[in-house]
Write a structure and sequence with these properties.
By secondary structure, the protein is α/β, with parallel strands linked by helices. The chain contains 18 helices and twelve strands. Helix 1 crosses helix 10, helix 2 packs parallel to helix 3 and helix 12 packs across helix 14. The chain binds beta-D-fructofuranose.
Length: 490
């Protein structure tokens, strides 16, 4: 976790370095948060890091004292703490990375004293009072400058590291331009803000005479060394951001590798004499960084694509497995259903056969009864009557033929005759039992349908009152001496 105190160009450069370096540590997951120059916000942020039990905190404390208790709390909770750029009033931290701000102040003091030839009036613009970097720059600067009796700090104010605040205060300050020989701000942003204010108030001739000096010397055109090249600032003191170093140390701490607890960057002056060289080198570094970032992004894209393809592949495999299982279940279900259908068809065939056998048995019984009867009705029947009877019988059968349950009882009931009466009269009229007549008529109709229509064997079987096509085929063969397939019209 990274907790930055502010959002500005210097922080952005550091954050970029952090992310770029973190890319080389694939086991590291970095989150960067900013407290927007607000100590309370930063305290709450670190409290939340403690709750989340993060593995390590890199923190630039907005102010040294207000942030002390919460950072100590995190440290006591076993979370390694890397302080960057600014410090706290405590020893409870794991490592520190940053510039030597006392050294920065001293270097500025010496440079300014020389520039002024030991004599002149200075406006001093400090950073946020509670921040260690401002306090240390102040100490270093005054340690040197106070030795020069003829150098006076005619105005001194805090602009909290902010350009706009420096500009605003400079706008309202009541010092005549003639009483100012140099402006020193603790960072370049405030120095530029102060000069912008002066540009609207000071005469052009005077403006050119007052050097504005800052700190940071960022690799940046609008707020860094570009402003030394274009003459807005006279000089600046390099204050390295150290983002990459912070990640290196974090890696050492997390992986139990040796590291230095205090990692101090040296400062150096950047002014007219070397700014051009710095710019060329900076451009080169920027180009390299851009290339690294380009490669990082490409790799990120690649990993994203790879992840997406992996997900698609997994989904594809799952879908294939599901489809195969579904297919297998359906094949099984289909096989079961055909097996059951076959069993059912066989059962139907058996039942139909049994029914016919039963009917035949009953016919035999009736025949016995009929022959033992005293006065057979058939004796009194004349031929014409027989024909009429047969016509009626055939009509009843024809009308009910498709009903596979059509029985001798139903036919008898339709014709108003008992089973025995029906049997006697049918036998007398055509020599066949009613059952045989029914069967014969069914098969003859089937013969006709097979020969004269396009209907299938099953359709014909059902139409003439068989409930099992296979049993129909058997009866057909018995009766006509050939299979129904041979009778198909095609
Ligand atoms: C960035 C900054 C720098 C300055 C440093 C001091 O947030 O204001 O300009 O050098 O912090 O801590």
């Amino acid at each position: 976790m990274v907790s930055q105190c502010s959002i500005d160009d210097w922080r952005n450069q550091m954050n970029q370095e952090i992310l770029r370096e973190a890319f080389f540590h694939t086991d590291m997951n970095v989150e960067i948060h900013s407290a927007s120059d607000n100590s309370q916000q930063q305290i709450a942020m670190i409290e939340s890091f403690i709750k989340r039990r993060v593995d390590l905190i890199i923190v630039a404390p907005n102010e040294a004292e207000p942030l002390r208790p919460v950072i100590e709390k995190a440290f006591d909770a076993g979370i390694p703490i890397i302080l960057v750029d600014r410090k706290i009033n405590s020893n409870k931290y794991t490592a520190f990375i940053g510039g030597d701000n006392v050294e920065v102040g001293k270097a500025a003091g010496l440079y300014i004293a020389e520039l002024l030839n030991g004599k002149g009036n200075i406006i001093e613009i400090e950073g946020l009072d509670g921040s260690s970097s401002s306090q240390e720059r102040h100490n270093g600067f005054h340690e040197v400058i106070d030795k020069y009796k003829n150098i006076k700090v005619v105005a001194n104010f805090e602009a909290d590291w902010l350009k706009d605040k420096a500009k605003q205060i400079m706008d309202t300050i009541s010092i005549s331009p003639d009483d100012v020989d140099l402006v020193f701000a603790y960072n370049d942003r405030m120095a530029i803000g102060a000069k912008e204010a002066a540009q609207t108030r000071y005469p052009q001739s005077k403006l050119a005479q007052i050097p504005y000096i800052g700190v940071d010397a960022l690799r940046n055109d609008s707020i860094g060394i570009g402003r030394i090249e274009d003459g807005m600032l006279r000089a600046s003191f390099l204050y390295q951001t150290g983002g990459a170093k912070a990640i290196d140390i974090a890696d050492c701490i997390l992986n139990n590798k040796p590291y230095n607890r205090n990692n101090i960057f040296q400062t150096s002056i950047v002014d007219k004499s070397n700014v051009h060289l710095m710019t060329i080198q900076t451009k080169h570094i920027d180009e390299q960084n851009n290339k690294i970032e380009f490669l990082n992004n490409k790799l990120n894209d690649f990993f994203r694509d790879y992840e997406a393809q992996r997900t698609i592949l997994i989904a594809f495999v799952i879908i294939t497995i599901l489809t195969c299982s579904l297919l297998w279940v359906s094949i099984k279900a289909y096989r079961n259903s055909t097996r059951m259908n076959n069993q059912l068809a066989q059962q139907k065939e058996r039942l139909e056969q049994q029914r016919d056998q039963l009917e035949a048995e009953r016919d035999k019984l009736i025949e016995l009864q009929a022959t033992s009867a005293t006065e057979p009705e058939s004796n009194t029947m004349v031929n014409e009557e027989n024909n009429m009877f047969m016509d009626r019988l055939k009509k009843v059968i024809d009308e009910n033929m498709s009903n596979s349950d059509l029985s001798v009882e139903i036919i008898g009931a339709e014709m108003g005759l008992s089973r025995v009466q029906l049997y006697r009269r049918t036998k007398a009229a055509c020599g066949l039992s009613p059952n045989e007549t029914l069967r014969t008529q069914r098969l003859n109709k089937a013969y006709k349908l097979l020969h004269e229509t396009q209907k299938t064997i099953s359709e014909v079987a059902y139409e003439v009152g068989f409930s099992s096509p296979s049993y129909f085929a058997k009866c057909y063969k018995d009766y006509f001496g050939k299979n129904p397939t041979e009778s198909l019209r095609n």
